[in-house]
Specification:
Strands 1, 2, 3, 4, 5, 6, 7, 8, 9 and 10 form a ten-stranded mixed β-sheet that branches. Strands 11, 12, 13, 14, 15, 16 and 17 form a seven-stranded mixed β-sheet that branches. A two-stranded antiparallel sheet has the order 18-19. The chain is built from eleven helices and 21 strands. The N terminus is likely disordered. Helix 6 crosses helix 9, helix 8 runs antiparallel to helix 11 and helix 10 runs antiparallel to helix 11. With 527 residues, the protein is of the alpha+beta class. Strand 4 and strand 5 form a beta hairpin. 28% of the residues lie in helices and 23% in strands.
């Protein structure tokens, strides 16, 4: 593997945190991942070069790079994602991405929130750790079962700040577990930000019909062909791993909630489809791209109307009256995609980044549903359309017109988007995905009629959902960082489309038009 060569002079692109390519450098790269690429080995090899990379980037004394992810194109171009520490303190929001050719030439550097320098003149706090812990417990709003903290450097919108990261664990009133990270200024005590490890979502259940699922042994709901994905029964518990489903004849469930296996079948099938989608379309080998599967836990809590990703596994409640498990295709795709986001851009769950995070799961949950080609649960641009959680047959979210949910989802980006709950600030990006895929106007797909308009009055045709999804996946994995906003999403998507399909291509122009159509702030990237 080539060693990083000198970066040279680069100018920051403010909107997306991108460093411009040195003169003569090419931004083109192959659209497909390298065949047979061993991501864990690549991470190990890059870590061995981390000190040289830091020096080549001109990072300040005390900054140390930790490789989190490596993406490699077929032509040898690499995108290496790093986390940072400064004088032994974790730098929250200090992540960066280096793009370089097979020859070692750097053509792009993405600094989260434009934070090239993250060092501080002093790392001595004024606020005590005990006071910070008390603030974290109070901010959580639930009875804490664990509360711990550490001194960090938090990269705010304007500058790095010495802060305490307080991690408060417990269970909310609605049975949802919480691992809340609160960041307090270590001098003033002000709350800077918060982010919950538990990423929640919802969808339909028991609508996939009779399906084939991967099992092993005699007979266990474990899919050895897909990294060992396996599915368990929590039997109403809100903790623990649960008991792995087993069966005597390898015929599972009966299609109704009267059999506990039915929810297990749906969750297992969804995990199988999601694995296959990422593998076959994006060349990704599991959630963490290391070939390892994940656990799906079913029958969580009592009448729990939700599902969530907690950093290692998917968990599904049984819904209202314990009769509607939230375990179908798009839910599994949504929850597992939270894991993919965590392993790549690691988008925060607040501000614009929270909306991008949640919409990413909606986008890929939707793509998994379409790719399944399941006659019983056909692909659509509706989220949660089968569970009838509203009691009137309406879905939870509409990608063609997010504001139709009546809950506050936005169709168009505004300066206030960052203040919304992630399930509502996701609206503009969901709208972008629909517009990029299908364009404006009215059309009927798989029996569902959609009517979508742009926010800027333009009309245009879409480039197709497969193109839009490939562009967004590349944006997620090679352009975005934890604190990215809608401006970064627009710059990143246009740049990704150029890399995949070429400058001036119909695909790039369509992606650009759709970003403009949701009023995402314009940066310097154009087709």
């Amino acid at each position: 593997m080539k060693r990083l060569t000198s970066v040279g002079a680069v100018a920051l692109i403010a909107a997306a945190g991108l460093a411009a390519a040195p003169a003569g450098a090419s931004l083109s790269s192959a659209p497909l991942p390298a065949s047979g690429f061993d991501q864990p080995s690549a991470v190990h090899a890059e870590q061995a070069l981390a000190a040289k990379t830091a020096a080549a980037l001109g990072l300040t004394k005390g900054e140390v790079l930790q490789v989190r992810d490596v993406v490699k194109d077929a032509d040898g171009t690499e995108f290496v994602r790093y986390d940072r520490t400064f004088n032994g303190l974790k730098v929250v929001g200090g992540d960066l991405i280096v793009k370089r050719s097979a020859a070692g030439t750097v053509s792009q550097i993405t600094y989260n929130r434009n934070a090239k320098a993250v060092g501080l003149t002093s790392t001595k706090p004024t606020l005590s750790e005990a006071a910070a812990l008390a603030k974290g417990a109070k901010a959580a709003g639930f009875k804490a079962t664990a509360n711990k903290g550490e001194l960090v450097i938090y990269v705010a919108e304007t500058k790095p700040v010495l802060a305490y990261e307080v991690v408060t664990s417990g269970v909310k009133a609605d049975q949802t577990p919480s691992v809340l990270h609160s960041f307090f200024d270590a001098k003033s005590g002000a709350l800077l930000d918060s982010d919950d490890e538990i990423k929640t979502g919802t969808g339909n259940s028991m609508y996939s019909g009779q399906v084939s699922i991967g099992t092993s042994g005699s007979y266990v709901l474990k899919d050895t062909a897909r990294g060992g994905n396996y599915t368990t029964d929590l039997n109403g518990s809100t903790s623990g791993s649960g008991t792995t489903f087993t069966d005597a004849d390898n015929v599972w469930g009966n299609g109704t909630a009267s059999s506990r296996q039915t929810a297990g079948v749906d969750a297992h099938y969804g995990a199988q489809l999601t694995w296959d989608y990422y593998k076959n379309v994006h060349g990704r080998n599991g959630i963490f791209n290391n070939g390892q599967g994940a656990r799906s836990r079913t029958h969580y809590g009592n009448a729990y109307v939700n599902a969530f990703w907690d950093g290692t596994q998917m968990t599904y409640g049984d819904g209202s009256g314990n009769t509607h498990p939230l375990t179908s295709i798009d839910v599994a795709g949504h929850e597992m995609s939270h894991g993919v986001t965590e392993a790549t851009a690691n988008l925060n769950y607040s501000g614009d980044a929270g909306g991008l995070n949640e919409a990413t799961s909606d986008i890929f949950g939707t793509m998994v549903e379409f790719s399944a080609n399941n006659a019983t649960d056909k692909g659509d641009y509706l989220i949660g359309e089968k569970i009838n959680i509203n009691g009137n047959g309406t879905p939870l979210r509409y990608m063609d017109k997010p504001s139709k949910d009546g809950r506050g989802s936005q169709d168009c980006w505004t300066t206030g988007t960052k203040n919304l709950d992630p399930h509502y600030s996701s609206g503009p990006l969901n709208h972008w995905f629909y517009l990029a895929s299908e364009g404006t106007g009215t059309k009927t797909i798989n029996g569902v009629t959609y009517t979508s308009t742009s926010c800027n009055g333009t009309t245009f045709t879409g480039v197709g959902r497969d193109v839009a999804a490939k562009v967004w996946y590349r944006t997620l994995t090679t352009k975005l960082s934890s604190g990215s906003n809608y401006a970064a999403a627009r710059n990143g998507a246009i740049t990704s489309a150029k890399e995949l399909y070429g400058a001036g291509s119909a695909q790039c122009i369509g992606i650009q038009k759709a970003m403009a159509a949701i009023n995402a702030p314009a940066g310097t990237a154009t087709c």
